[in-house]
Amino acid sequence: MLSRKTIGIIFLFCISGCGVIVRTFDTGITTFSHSALFRQGQYGPLSEKEQLWAKVAWKYFENNSYVKTGLANSIDGYPSATMSSIADYLAAMVAARQLQLIDKKQFDQRISELLHFLNRMPLFKGRLPNKVYDTTTGKMINYQGKQAEIGWSAIDIGRLLIWLKIVSQQYPEFHEYIDKAVFRWNFCDVIDDEGSLYTGVFYKNKMSLSQEGRLGYEEYAALGFKAWGFEPVKAESIDPVETITIYGVDIYHDARDHREDKVLTPILTLPFALMGIEFNWDHIDDTYSLDSNNTNKIYYEIANQVYKVQELRYKNEKIYTARTEHILDQPPYFLYDSIFANGYAWNTISDASKTFNNKSLVSVKAALAMHILWDTEYTSKLMLVIEELYDVKRGWFEGRYEQTGGYEVAISSSTNATVLEALLYKTKGKLFDNSKLSQYSKIRMHDAFKHPGKCFPALYKKK
């Protein structure tokens, strides 16, 4: 099968003779990949302003990383990391290297320190990454910062699997060490035979398992498992869903009732934006289609719904809207700014399902991601709202309060990594490329005597 680049070269020559594109050969391929005919949203090199934005975002990781452990804080100045924030750090490092914010030696050292940790870190019950680690010591901790084994998150593991695979694809010198780190994990309790994902909670010496994820992050995490050969059939399905109509737009939302299972079901921007930035809303095995052709049609449709309804809220009510989850520098410290949650549109809720609509934000990471992915008149207005929300010495703030216009000055790895990811997407298109498989992984997975076991897939499917 022809590669995306080969198809691109052939197509370039086919249309250049028709007057659609007139370029020299030397510049044609670059122009081709950056053409609006083949890419959605923003494309091309970063402007001077965008280069500053990237430098500000990277400053967060310079300030919050530790040589001893190779980890970076998930929140500015707070020594803890989750598997999701480790993925943030990987994404930030890849973007920083490719946007020329750091040189090859700096990149190599930082990646190597982190991989060293992943290959030696203590695992929950010797099986899986704990939910939280101390970034200064590398020890397993709870959310209060005390040393403890508390379980695992399949959603966080899924995001980390995505970024470990992206690094492996783009930097083959690290693929062996990445594979070895993941092969330490035991997936028997994480994904079942039907392809559902499970979280594990260890509390008062009792272990409980429950299905994890709802529409958005469940499908996003499933992409990470699928990238490593698992078959997360239930997790990647959008069923069960219902629709709610907002400003004439039918919005999908999770049909499972949070009052019965105590699992929240907010519709948020970020998981669908990350599907665009990292996968271009393509199927995981798509290695040849142009970026203008989003082959995972249902994910692309939902992402467009989520974007469009926020644009329509501004058009109808003149309320700047860019909503996703965010942290706060005061209680309750973490909120879901939703398009729809708990039966209501534009509902802002805590983990305890309490409403905090006075703390809704115009989110920096949601606004910038939408601007890069959709590039509309509305997203240009959003950028005017958030483009100064940073401290050049610390990084990007979480956002601006919808009701008052004040800054939410908390600073997180999630927001700063998303800024870097989105800007990298502008320069190169989707970040995941499944055409590059790790040789070490292939040898282990195809050899019955070397297979890692631990409920890893029996074999990679041969192409």
Molecular structure report:
The structure is a single chain. The protein is of the alpha+beta class and 463 residues long. The chain has one domain: Alpha/alpha barrel (Glycosyltransferase). Helices cover 41% and strands 13% of the residues. The protein is built from 16 helices and 18 strands. The strands form 7 sheets. A 3-stranded antiparallel beta sheet has the order 1-2-3. A hairpin with a 3-residue loop joins strand 15 and strand 16. Helix 13 runs antiparallel to helix 14 and helix 13 packs parallel to helix 15. The radius of gyration is 21 Å and the shape is globular.
Kindly list the characteristics that best describe this protein.
463 residues; alpha+beta; Glycosyltransferase; 16 helices; globular
